[in-house]
Amino acid sequence: MRILFCFIFFSFYACGVLNSNTVTDKNELKFEETEDGEYDIIVLDGQYDYFLNAIAFPENFYSESYYKNKNIFLVNEWNYRHTQPMRYDPNLYEVSIDYSPHIDYGKTFEYKLYNFFKFIEWKYGVDLDGRPR
Question: What is the pLDDT of residue 27?
């Protein structure tokens, strides 16, 4: 089974993206469906795996629609911050995310994307969803 891997690299304070099937001139993360109809995301930061296994709620804690609705909001907030480099750290919000709410990415992908944002909040101390900590 071939799965599209969107590699998300994190260094101490920077974010860069490599998508195995899409190369663009601008900094953008795109998700593409494989022949098997699946999407996957891999975050290449050892702390993300720790976060996912030890801190994040299990995948079945929320429904797929909950993850999708949160991801719509979080992607919009992320992309807004990406367009505001004078206000938000351009090294953290280096890439825009091409996410469509009209595509069925699947629950596992939605869960991983949601927890990517939660991981960023946890690791860098930023507030993406506007809720007090």
Answer: 55
Strands of the 15-19 sheet, one edge to the other: 15-19, 5-10, 40-44
Output the 3-class SS for 32-84: CCCCCCCCEEEEECHHHHHHHHHHCCCHHHCCHHHHHHHHHHHHHHHHHHHCC
Say what the pLDDT of residue 132 is: 53
* pTM recorded for the entire structure: 0.77
Q: Which helix (H) or strand (E) holds 16?
A: strand 15-19
How do 15-19 and 5-10 pair as beta strands?
antiparallel
Of all helices (H) and strands (E), which one includes residue 94?
none
**What is the amino acid identity at position 31?**
F
Residues whose CB is less than 8 angstroms from the CB of residue 98 and which lie 6 or more positions away in sequence, other chains included: 28, 29, 30, 31
Instruction: Tell me the average pLDDT of the chain.
Output: 79
Q: Which two tokens stand for residue 121?
A: 């909040």
**What residues have CB less than 8 Å from 12, skipping those under 6 apart?**
none
